[in-house]
Amino acid sequence: MPRNTPRRQITTLLPFLGLGFGLAITATTLAPPAMAAPDRPECLAGAKPGGGFDLTCRLIANAMLQTKLISQPMIVTYMEGGVGAVAYNHVIGKRATDANLVSAASSGSALLLAQGKFGRYDETAVRWVGALGADYGVLVVAADSPYQTLAELIAAYAKDPTKFPVAGGGAVGSQDWMKGVMLAKAAGHPARDMRYVALEGGGAVLTALEGGHVAIGAGDAAEMARHHAAGKVRILAVMAPERLPGELAGVPTAREQGIDIEWPVWRGYYIGHDVSDDDYRWWVDQFAALSKTPEFEAERTARGLYPFTLLGADFEKKVQADVARFKQIAAEAGM
User: Fold this and answer.
1) CA–CA separation, 184 vs 285, rounded Å?
2) Distance CA 8, CA 5 (A)
3) How far apart are CA 209 and CA 203, in angstroms?
4) Which domains can be identified in the chain, with CATH numbers?
5) Do the Cβ atoms of 115 and 335 come closer than 8 Å?
6) CB 220 within 8 A of CB 206
7) Model-wide pTM > 0.70
8) How far apart are CA 236 and CA 216, in angstroms?
9) For 69-124, what is each residue's pLDDT tens digit?
């Protein structure tokens, strides 16, 4: 159950024939009508313009209008603070019943929820609508590294992790740090044995690798792919269930190499906890229809995302499972 989730109560106002008044009826006996379409569709990005949440909102704003799943342009609004925490609390406290609004989220949101960084609310305080794309984690070495496979790297790392500083584009506890932890665990070492170098973004990780300042880089496929293709770095494994298309088609997954590591960086959406079941279902159904269109595929590809569609109850279970997994990893790391 959510921590202090607002009580669920839906009230509808029925016009009384042609008269200028109405009767408020608590929806214990009368369900609200199914939502035909939002009259003012909106996507809330919990950060400044230009980041991942903005990308996530723009993905559906553009594709849903192109495919005529919405008749009005979707407004994208921004509410920065706490990497989505301020927006999350705003939806819960102010817009829990607003069926016009969906909000952007990512696997990073699940990570922060697991660490208690979204305040007093947990992952059950909203309704998770779906994920419509993903990037995937990658483990990278310099182009002149002696290690050609993930298995070779792990064997060497297992002998002495102090010789293998791992760079990531985020602080301790971030997604890149988590990828490094999974590498350490695969080599039989706890998180505390990892030498983690926190840098500002994937560009800094690439610079550190190319300059020989670190041995391993943890990052995302989209930001590393062209550097791998250009021969500037070598991606040893993608943390995906199957090989990725395009420039990384020749890179094996970690699982192919006998290492059970996956890290999808999903891009998804949630809605207020007290939105009606019918309105929630409307969004799920539209996302399902959208995901099958060529217009959406083009929008997703243009934003550097790979196919990853998970909707409704299946997505809800995914978020809950991610939060539980991240809590376990954090606990094992002493966080």
Assistant:
1) 41
2) 9
3) 10
4) 11-26+40-134+264-332 (3.40.190.150), 136-257 (3.40.190.10)
5) yes
6) no
7) yes
8) 10
9) 999 999 999 999 888 999 999 999 999 999 999 999 999 999 999 999 999 999 99
